[in-house]
UniProtKB/TrEMBL annotation, chains A, B:
Highest taxon in the source lineage: Bacteria
GO molecular function terms listed in the Swiss-Prot or TrEMBL record: monooxygenase activity; oxidoreductase activity, acting on paired donors, with incorporation or reduction of molecular oxygen
NCBIfam families hit by this protein: FMN_nitrolo
UniProt keyword terms in alphabetical order: Flavoprotein, FMN, Monooxygenase, Oxidoreductase
Name of the protein in question: LLM class flavin-dependent oxidoreductase
SUPFAM superfamilies: Bacterial luciferase-like
Domain Luciferase-like: 18-382
Binding site for FMN: D57, T94, H144, Y148, S218, S219
InterPro entries referenced in this protein's UniProt entry, alphabetically: Diverse_substr_monoxygenases, Luciferase-like_dom, Luciferase-like_sf, NTA_MOA
Family under the similarity heading: Belongs to the NtaA/SnaA/DszA monooxygenase family.
Pfam families documented for this protein: Bac_luciferase (PF00296)
Organism: Alkalicoccobacillus porphyridii
Length: 446, 446
């Protein structure tokens, strides 16, 4: 019998997730807006038989952001391009429910799902930054809890719209001139607290039925939302124990929603830095660390702590215990605080550590060491696979595909070939049956 | 000296603009959601050295719509794909200012302009249909005049956002770790009647500076808007006299805005049906006309007349003189009424006529006849070229590229090769200089 299979995503990010990767001599620093660069990476990931590529997003400019996020492609237009540059790999993007309309997002993601023939995923976020509100006619960013209430209704509307057309509704009978079967078209009208949407959508069902729903929030509301809606969960976990606790929590919540917990795939982020020898891997890492401009590292930390100003504190002392309330990414903030405590890091050590992968777990080692680590987590039940953040592109990804993927394949825990065609196929998720407006409202999951 | 050059666009529309084209045996009826079909067409148009491809859009489903519009790709994701499937041709799409936010559209179009390296155009529309309001939390569609006031401010915000980054703002100095020059980044804050947008945009200036602005409204407000903002104007004109009048009006209004009227390119729509002989061309046309389902033709006419019910009238009598007020596409309605009067058409003849190309001018003939007609209009000064609507794809486009383009090229009025790389290059439009927030507000055109 085939062993349980690991799922692997690649989190794209211009020249890489390490804060200083763009400063290396051979890194193309303009890659966040270079489509040829993205196409090459996508093709490498497809050669590596990864489940999916993922791009994040933000709707404001923030000079404290990671440099690869200062200017970059808008994800849905980028995925349009990657949809035809690739043949098999899944393609997922972040889009916020706080500053969008459900009709637009339902349509764009389903349109992408036609462009790439059923390989699309939507990472639902509620936005972190005040700056986004100010770009959308609003003075204040909606409060964290309210954002999730809106997100819940937003996803409900999107799912209704995705069920506008039954699979065989478009009969296109040339003899009679009947283009579609009126009985199989459903308006899926929605009337709720935030949204009033008449429907139906002017895009038909796609090959995988509906795009895959992904979610990444780890706060209390984020988990509740994920347990109800998400088919893939991106998360940041530093230890197996924490990851197991997280997985158990999500799975039991999913069961409460009447869902099969094996259809919720949990993928913690990891940053693998691999080379032929462990020593060489550490050299690669240290080379990147040495390129961090201290002010930039501190600004990134400050950004993750809600704009807190660390300049009044000793950089070589511990993290201040009293940090201000913050209406942004709660779980990332907590994760960084926990990491600082657990590893007894100074402020300087902390920003150096997050410079590499923003709170995600670093694995530095030779190919066997990296494969062992991934396999241990995977087989412990702590996760269903990983969302891989490479410190630098294309080098980090190239190394992983060349050195680690073959080991995972040899061990029988990762595919040698794609066995299906859609993202749902890769992830082992079923094609959702057609659901009426009422079935969607009742959260009837298939 | 080189003769004045004609500009040619191709208006994509699934299987074609003729209402019944999908019913022909060899037409792929599912093409409105088939990316491989679109890629083939795009490549043919590029072989034909056309200036641009254009896709229209609508944000609601309407069963009375043209069948190619019932379900279809969302244009911006589609253009993402076509951006890398083509190398030279311009790529333009419709997006409405009534049900969008300027930050989103500014970003998506500029992102596309990076994906295709400066070949993007945005056709600004204000939406026609009540159904769109109902998909966006609103009971009533905004009134025609107010829509244009909003559109004017919307475009102003978009242009400000497109000028967030000066061309050389991203210094990416690896030695010092300076990614961008703060002095060359401009927030371009906007505070107006409809929009409050802090900026800046998180996408840099593109190769052609800014995407090309296209506009298609021919109402009084539409013309005023076009004269102020548009660099390309799509229009429907049935006679040279009307077209000349339209062009003169636009040009004099453009001058009032301090613009160079030669930088406003007017492209009337035409539907060329061409074959080796005139007789064969008419056969092609009649074959399509015979496939029109009468009810469907009448519904399309009704749709264009604001939902007016013709069933109470004699189909073989004249168009009723009293038609209801209509808050939709005013100029198309008027154009159809004028055509019915001028050609003394019955209701039946009228719907048959618009079935082919929705109010656009049909040219049916052999290659010389079609080329003569286009040349006559072009050289009379009535237009700068044409937006070509093919009755059926791919056949209609294939015929035109094979039979008509070489004649226009031989006559020295159409390019044999692309001489530039961007859409602005093709159209002979300058790259706009960087403009401050205030310069954009003052409508300082370059």
């Amino acid at each position: 019998m085939q062993k349980r299979q690991m799922h692997l995503g690649v989190f794209l990010m211009g020249f890489g997730h390490h804060l200083a990767s763009w400063r290396q001599a051979d890194t193309p620093a303009d890659s966040p807006e270079d489509i040829d660069f993205y196409i090459d990476i996508a093709k490498t990931a497809e050669q590596g038989k990864f489940d999916l590529l993922f791009v994040s997003d933000g709707l404001s400019f923030n000079e404290r952001s990671h440099p690869s996020e200062l200017v970059r492609f808008e994800p849905l237009t980028l995925l349009g391009a990657l949809s035809i540059a690739t043949k098999s790999i899944g393609l997922a993007a972040t889009a916020t429910t706080t500053y969008n309309e459900p009709f637009h997002l339902a349509r764009k993601f389903l349109s992408l799902d036609h462009l790439n023939k059923g390989r699309t995923g939507w990472n639902v976020v509620t936005s972190y930054y005040q700056g986004e509100a100010n770009n959308f006619n609003q003075n204040d960013h909606m409060k964290h809890d309210e954002r999730y209430v809106r997100a819940d209704e937003f996803v409900e509307v999107v799912k209704k719209l995705w069920n506008s057309w039954e699979t065989d509704a478009l009969v296109r009978d040339k003899a009679t001139g009947t283009y579609f079967d009126q009985k199989k078209l459903h308006a899926q009208h929605h009337e709720g607290r935030y949204f009033s949407v008449a429907g139906p959508l002017n895009t038909s069902r796609s090959k995988q039925g509906e795009p895959v729903i992904i979610q990444a929030g780890s706060s209390e509301q984020g988990r509740a939302f994920a347990a109800k809606h998400a088919e893939v969960i991106f998360t940041a976990q530093q230890t197996i124990e924490e990851a197991l606790k997280f997985a158990n929590d999500i799975q039991s919540k999913a069961v409460e929603h009447g869902r099969d917990p094996s259809k919720v795939k949990i993928l913690p982020g990891v940053i693998p830095i691999v080379a032929l020898t462990e020593e060489e891997a550490w050299e690669k890492y240290n080379e990147l660390q040495d390129l961090i401009v201290p002010e930039v590292g501190l600004e990134l930390l400050s950004e993750y702590m809600g704009g807190f100003d660390f300049s009044q504190f000793d950089l070589d002392g511990p993290l201040p215990t009293e940090l201000p309330e913050y209406n942004g990414n709660q779980s990332r903030k907590q994760l960084i605080i926990d990491m600082a405590k657990r590893e007894q890091l100074t402020v300087r050590q902390l920003y150096q550590k997050i410079a590499g992968g923003r709170g995600h777990r670093l694995i530095i080692g030779n190919p066997e060491q990296v494969a062992d680590d991934l396999q241990l987590w995977f087989e412990s039940g702590a996760c269903d696979g990983f969302n891989l953040l490479f410190a630098r592109y294309p080098g980090g990804l190239d190394d992983f595909v060349e050195l680690v993927v073959p080991i995972l394949q040899e061990r029988g825990i990762f595919r040698k070939q794609y066995s299906g065609e859609t993202l749902r196929d890769h992830l082992g998720l079923d094609v959702p049956s057609f659901r009426t407006e009422k079935q969607v409202s009742n959260q009837t999951f298939v």
